[in-house]
Amino acid sequence: MTTAQSTYRIPLPEPLAELLGQQVTDLPPAELDGGLLRADVHAAYDRVRAESPEAQALVRRCRDLLDDPDGDGFAVLEVGALLAHYGTDDGQKAATVLLSWLGVPLRAFDRWPLWKPLGTNLTTDPMRATGSGYNPLHIDVVNATEPPDYSALLCVRPDPRGEGYSIVSQLRRAVDRLSESERAFLAEPVFHDGAFYDLTGIGKEYDPFPVLDGLPPTEGFVRFTAKMLPDMSLWDPHTSAARALERELIAEQHKFLLGFGDLIVVNQHLCVHSREARGHGQEDVPAERRRLLWQMFLRSAEAVAR
Q1: What digits encode the pLDDT tens for the residues 254-278?
Q2: Angle between helices 14-23 and 39-50 (to 10 degrees)
Q3: Beta 74-78 vs 9-11: how paired, if at all?
Q4: In this model, does residue 4 exceed pLDDT 80?
Q5: Pairwise CA distance, residues 286 & 227, whole Å
């Protein structure tokens, strides 16, 4: 396991932060069409990028980190100035504009807004996204025929106990380290995870699904989630293969703390993510001070064009 190096962090240039702050109130709201950011709104947001050399440089750096098949498939943008200087509403909208330069914002869950709040709930399953325990390595919406291409998490409030490390690991390299027989078992459609309802823009339910679909990274997914492992039979060779993949992922994982305004973007074709447990004593922390993230998904522009 390694600690993520500073090369994965991308500071937001001050001129770009100021530009977004100046334009955000005049830009159209993030209205959706079929779960995706409406095409005319996306075009308006992209005009800001086209007029800013700093924005174009930031996007190029993000692409280098996110989309290189030989890279790690994630980036951390430091956008705290957008929240600190322009408030929660305008800061969130400015972050939406920024993410729209990397893909088309997608609201997969019908019951939530475009940015889904992920707080800390002490009464839910600790392994869930809003739980207080370890959240196993996974890609989001694993049981869909078209999972989101990118998953983004913006830290609005870090864990006051100083824990809850974020974890990422490169999927494709981990798969390459498996044996031929393990890959063969993972290619069989026998895996299950989670429920599927009130979802838009991510295809149809895929149950059972294969972990490996045989497609290249730009088209396919390694549909892995360690959340499914506790419910699998200990004696099933498919379980052994899935646990072997989990071990490979853990062996090469990166971990780091997200601070206020840190925005992690993960390419789900290349990378899994997870979270360590929050710090001890969460019951003594008022609910409004516990860790809070906002989550958004992105569909690649190429996928939308198809």
Answers
A1: 999 999 999 999 999 999 999 999 9
A2: 140
A3: parallel
A4: no
A5: 28
Asked if omega into 105 is within 30° of 0 (cis), the reply is no
The closest of 256, 254, 177, 165 to 222, measured between CA atoms, is 177
Reading the block at residue 140, the tokens are 């989001």
Helix (H), strand (E), coil (C) string for 223-286: CCEHHHHHHCCCCCHHHHHHHHHHHHHHHCCEEECCCCCEEEEEECCCEEEEECCCCCCHHHCC
The predicted-structure confidence for 73-119, as pLDDT tens digits, reads as follows: 999 999 999 999 999 999 999 999 999 999 999 999 999 999 999 98
Locate 201 and state its tokens: 């823009």
Model confidence at 153: pLDDT above 60: yes
Angstrom distances, CA of residue 83 to CA of 18, 154, 212:
12, 10, 39
Residue 2: the pLDDT is 55
Angle, vertex CA 264, rays to CA 262 and CA 267, nearest 5:
170
